[in-house]
Amino acid sequence: MDFIVDAIASIDAFVWGPPMIIMLLGSHLYFTFRTGFIQRKIPQAIKLSVTKDPDTPGDISQFGALTTALSATIGTGNIVGVGTAILAGGPGAVLWMWLTGVFGIATKYAETYAAVKYRVEDHNGAMLGGAMYAWRRAFTKEGKTPWWALLGAGAFALFAAIASFGIGSAVQSSAMTSIITSNVEGIPTWVIGLIVVVLVSLVIFGGIKSISRVCEKLVPFMAIAYVLGCIVIACMNWEYIWPAICLICECAFTPKAAFGGAVGSGLMMALQFGCARGLFSNESGLGSAPIVAAAAKTRNPARQALVSMTGTFWDTVVICALTGIVLVSTMLANPEIMAEGAISQGADLTSAAFASIPYIGTPILVLGMVMFAYSTILGWSYYGNRCVTYLFGKRAIRPYQVIYVIIAFLGAVGIGDLVWTISDITNALMAVPNILVVLILSGMIARETKHYVWDNNLEEIDDTPIPLLESK
User: Fold this and answer.
1) How do residues 245-296 score in pLDDT, each as one tens digit?
2) Beta bridge partners of 121
3) CA-CA to 370 of 20 to 30 Å: which in 50, 153, 226, 452?
4) Contact assessment for residue 30 and residue 22, using Cβ atoms and an 8 Å cutoff
5) Is 359 left (phi over 0), alpha (psi -120 to 50) or beta?
6) Is residue 192 within 8 Å of 176, Cβ to Cβ?
């Protein structure tokens, strides 16, 4: 058994190693230039994200699609992941994480454009989309789909469905249990598991509209509460903010021992851990967020692609960067927490930073992490739902949902590690067919982006008929 566990761990380390980082980061740079540096449209995209487009095909609002996607990306990985990157790669990892987010905006735009353009409608009028439908529709001619396109579609859907059980369900419920039991004594894990099952079931069995309604209210609230906590810590450490920024920039480009050698150092370590945590945090290139973006009410693919790319902006460019500055400034203001060697994990570093706020710091962090984990469970449930629907038809939806909440319970009571590792592998493997299809379609995306975005035709309605899904 130990051999199997070690083998799976080795595979996980490989798939999330340099080849994956090069593929994703290279795609980010490529799509940045291919789309004419679409990042320049962030202000307009933010405005569009709160603009309703009701008389257009779709199931949920553009804002609902954005918050549902954010619910799956803004999670414990943002909070704990930044601390992990700093401890392993040094303060310079924060800058590389931030740059990964900046360029990842373009990939999120491109993959969402493809998902919305090639979405389909089922017999109940619901919109379905994602890399699997892009593969299937983009290359079908005269009713025939090449085997390699079917393979790409099936591979993406299968990897995403498996990943949802771990990253979306077991790992998040496990994180909730760990957070709660470490701060509140006497609560059995099975009680937490049952509460998670009930709260998740009440939402996900209602479908995308139910998930969207909850996320529209939950995500802005939890993000604002967390950001306010970070701002309070920044104000308390205000004299260390500029030195923290300088240290982050210096360590990103030069080998420099930080905090007496208590944390990782060196250019390559900062680059590797910063990029890896940034890519994992915002999911740009993995193909997850476009699945829910395809359900949005939008008059053309470019509008929703612009809205979706703001998710990477909020997730990494704002929240991860703010977290990184707060953590480094806290380490500068309180060097004793590193000198004592008590901080060895990202969660410990984040907890120490929030504990510096008297009385309310730790409760804010605990509540925030629980809400982040809960919202991630909701968001990923939809991703897995759409993927099993593609693979097995609508009859598979209810069994999938039941298994999903059961795994959430098992994660809460402690089966997390192996499930996490397996799903982490499939999470990375999602990126391969997703990035490949978007690269193949990049010419079309660039051409139509010029028409809609750069030639100021965003109000134009795309009247291309949305095909009806073949029933299974």
Assistant:
1) 998 888 888 776 555 444 555 666 777 777 777 777 778 888 988 999 998 8
2) 127, 468
3) 50
4) no
5) left
6) yes
pTM of the complete model:
0.89
Phi–psi pair at 198, nearest 5 degrees: -65, -50
Token pair, residue 421, equals 């590792």
Quote the CA–CA distance of 22 and 28 in Å, as a whole number: 10
Residues 21 and 277: their CA atoms lie apart, in Å, by 10
Q: What are the phi and psi torsion angles at 296 (to 5°)? A: -75, 150
What pLDDT shows up at residue 470?
A: 66
The pLDDT tens digits of the residues spanning 404-442 come to 999 989 888 876 556 667 767 877 888 999 999 999 999
What domains, with CATH codes, occur in the chain? 2-454 (1.20.1740)
The residue type at 206: G
Q: How far apart are CA 372 and CA 71, in angstroms?
A: 7
**Geometric angle at alpha carbon 375, from 133 and 77, rounded to 5°:** 90
